[in-house]
Amino acid sequence: MRGGTRLFKVMMDNVESRGIEVRLETAAERLITDAGRVTGLAAGGNSIEARGGVVLACGGFEASADMQAQYWQEKPVLPGAYLGNTGDGIRMAQAAGADLWHMWHYHGTYGFRHPDADEFPYGIRLHRLPD
Ligand SMILES: Cc1cc2nc3c(=O)[nH]c(=O)nc-3n(C[C@H](O)[C@H](O)[C@H](O)COP(=O)(O)OP(=O)(O)OC[C@H]3O[C@@H](n4cnc5c(N)ncnc54)[C@H](O)[C@@H]3O)c2cc1C
């Protein structure tokens, strides 16, 4: 079985058995706070109340040219991950008062730019193909 399959089965079983609503194509926009405490999330034009807190799992900022310029020494760096990872969660946490640490470090590798970088704006790794 491919890595991750069991993890996703456990997750889907829990989503179904606990009646958790999944909202696809709904961007998280902002953490809602009350006196410094995170009480909810603004997403897709709605406010969602949080009972125990909000887990931010919006990925990194590898696809944000602005944040690359701000935090990384070498640039530009071509991402190998999802192009929607533009640091939204990091900015939301900052707006709620979070401090940042260790932003300079990333796991990278040598590779190539695709000849048509507009159409295919990813780094192509030498590590293994197909990736
Ligand atoms: C090519 C490659 C190979 C890798 N190989 C390994 C490996 O062998 N072993 C290993 O341990 N790790 C590996 N990694 C790293 C690993 O994949 C990541 O560390 C991990 O996926 C990060 O998980 P995450 O849940 O934090 O974010 P992600 O998996 O990046 O997920 C972030 C999600 O948030 C969504 N999102 C972004 N903004 C918003 C928003 N505003 N609202 C709602 N959703 C949003 C995105 O659509 C995305 O689905 C690899 C990464 C890459 C790119």
Outline the structure in words.
21% of the residues lie in helices and 18% in strands. The protein folds into two domains: 31 residues, no CATH class; 73 residues, no CATH class. The two termini are 18 Å apart. The chain is α+β, with helices and mostly antiparallel strands. The strands form two sheets. Strands 1-2-3 form a three-stranded antiparallel sheet, with helices on one face. Strands 4-5 form a two-stranded antiparallel ribbon. Flavin-adenine dinucleotide binds next to loops.
The number of strands is: 5
The percent of residues in helical segments reads 10-25%
Q: How are the strands ordered across the major sheet?
A: 1-2-3
> How many structural units, i.e. domains?
2
Listed once per kind, the bound small molecules are: flavin-adenine dinucleotide
Uncertain runs with pLDDT below 50, 5 residues or more?
none
The global form is globular
Structural class: alpha+beta
Number of helices: 3
Which band does the percent of strand residues land in?
Answer: 15-25%
**Mean pLDDT score:** 91
